[in-house]
Design brief:
Pfam families: Polysacc_synt_3. This is Oligosaccharide flippase family protein. Keywords: Cell membrane, Membrane, Transmembrane, Transmembrane helix. By secondary structure, the protein is mainly α. 76% of the residues lie in helices and 2% in strands. Helix 1 runs antiparallel to helix 11.
Amino acid sequence: MSASPKPVATPSFLGRAGPLVLARLFTAGLTLSIPLVLARVLHLDEYGTYYQLFLIATTLSYVLPFGVAQSLYYFLPRAEAKRPFLGHALLFVSGAGLVAAALVWAFLGYVAAYFNNPALMEYRASLALYTAFFLGSYPLEISLTSQGRTKASAVVYLVSDAVRAGVMVLPPLMGFSLHGMMMAVAAFAALRYAATWVVSLRGATGPLVDRKLFREQLLYSAPFGAAMLLAIPQQNAHLYAVAGVVAPAVYALYRVGCFQLPVVDLLYTPTSEVLMVRLGELEREGRMEEGVDAFREAAGKLAYVFLPFAAFLFAAAPEFVGAMFGQKFLPAVPIFRVSVLGVVLSILPMDGTLRARGQTRAIFASYLVKAVVTVPLLWLGVKHFGMMGGIGSWALAELVGKGMLLSRVPAALSTPERKLGLVDVIPWRELGQASLAAVIAGGSIFLLRSGAHDAWVNLPAGFLWRVLPLAVAGVLFVVGYVVGLYAQGVRPLSALQSLRPRRAV
């Protein structure tokens, strides 16, 4: 009798995200160091200017690709010849980069006048170059992940994020201030752009350009691209609105309040990307009825991380802002607590699901409604409540948009044999368990602060002493959250087991 075959490690679909998560986890600390270091080495005016420069660059970088780069998640898993789709994306974003540079050069003066910050014009050349090259390199990681090359994508994330953190932090530390940093990031973006062409096309077959396929790719991308034309300006509208009514130094406080740790990008982005690829594979194999299970699995695992993370940041906001940025930024705590809502709203990977199912028009509709809602909310909010009105307007608009996306997910995951409702797609059990444990753990931090307030105030000066309250609060929260999960019969490590390879016979 022959021996039975040994079990072979086969990753769940979320297991494929493991290398991306690990790579981003490794570089998250470096990325996080950028605003924290700059907050200490730049003057408040320069710090506000830094945020304004990158607000302009990121707005253009997300709007002008018009969804063509993201369309690779849809087309490459289904394509035999992948090179045309890659070529179209690379050429399109290269042209978009030139447009971005021209816009910066032509209109930065008007933006500087609106921001009441003439110092912006000193960085016009470096900002134009950085924006053009960075936008042109947009498809780098996307091209690898959409071909299932998650390990290679993880290496690229690792190297790119590490180098980027270095070129942004080292020049100011060496005394070159914001001018040196902007020249360094422009050079970095140029190298990244060259690497994008080499890495993305490696091993791909087919012609570089195919007009018929490009029309198909552009038609798919257009609704999503149009959505980005609405979504990114809408999401950043509160940043522009506040920048137009406060001085750069006060704007620095607002941006600290809007600061988000990279945990959302660290987990949500690779999970959503791999989910998109998985849904494409299920559709190709005729097993789309399993799509809702993949969605619930992804959302459930994210819930166990995002809900406690948001609860901790909300409860420990004074300790976090004081430790990370310094006591002079404590007025940003109320704004920071409102911005934490963004973490909670990232639990359900809805936009990636709709893109994978070709329902980009639903994304456009949600962004259109958000844009319409944002205008009156922002006008009233900033006028009557200042900076708190700005962040509150953003939060209300996000709730409206996420609600619209969620209403379309059941239909997107339904099949003729299995019609789904809202109740079917939400991981209720995981949400309930994570919420209860997070509330209990967060409450313990408020009790700690009320009992140890005098002790914290009288701590000696120095970074380690300043971090001590945050460290104590963190340990207390983690213990409370883990105990809360165990009390409900949940084993935290097993709850995240899908990010590891599974054994299959």
